[in-house]
Write a structure and sequence with these properties.
Elements lengths: L2 H22 L3 E7 L12 H14 L4 E5 L3 H7 L5 E4 L15 E4 L3 E10 L19 E9 L5 E8 L5 H19 L4 E6 L7 H9 L1 E2 H4 L25 E5 L3 E8 L15 E7 L1
Parallel strand pairs: 1-2, 7-8
Antiparallel strand pairs: 1-12, 2-4, 3-4, 5-6, 6-7, 8-10, 9-10, 11-12
Helix pairs in contact: 4-5
Amino acid sequence: MRPALRLLACWLALVVPAAFAVDAAQPFNVATYNLRLNLAQDGVNAWPKRKEAVKALIRYHEFDIFGTQEGLPLQIDELAEMAEFAYVGVGRDDGQRAGEHAAIFFRKARFKALKHGDFWFSETPDRPSKGWDGRCCNRLASWVQLHDRLSGRSFYVFSSHFDHEGVQARRESARLLLRKIAEIAADSPVINLGDFNSTPETEQIQLMQAALRDAYRVSETAPYGPVGTFNDFKIDAAMAERIDYVFLSPGFRVLKYAVLSDSYAGRFPSDHHPVAVRLSLD
């Protein structure tokens, strides 16, 4: 082999594997975002007045994956106008389109959906249903297995929304969610995003923290933004209590954690702040 070709071959042997190693660990941004359903009674805070602010926030902060809660079909359709994203998820009332979704959006250039599904937080999780002492509405979780085109690895993402009234429903939902995660994902890495309608000292969050890592607690940099995640559309909200979470199995590094309190014209894009984390696969 000529000396120049031999030198090139040596260079490729050193550089190409290193390049692939960088790609395999390339971080990505994940968030959970309760959108607040579209209600005309919200007036200046109704969805048509703020939908572009929601999209702008998602794009500015470069979310790669985000789980939603409360989105009605029109809201999900309008988020899907962001052509760089695909999504999975169904309506909680009929398992198709009707009612609020816990949809999961992901950036198509980076991720590919391998399989996905949904289940309800009730004694009959395979069909639309209310559970335990939940009185208001059906509650569900959606999930997807994503293939990372850069690393060649796959992992699961779950988007959850617990009941806001039933105390037993929230406890039992945590137990059901953990069983379903074990059943569906087995030993694969898992990201669980959600509005749990529960503060950290509650039994259900203690159960979640015992089984999965709370991104707030394990972030490699100090958490950014307010502690609380529910603002009730009040710009001066105390923001002291966490009810929205990102939970993770081993297999991820949490490089950063933030509660994003972006506002526009003195208003918030939703009555919940999104919780955003920057992750890398171990």
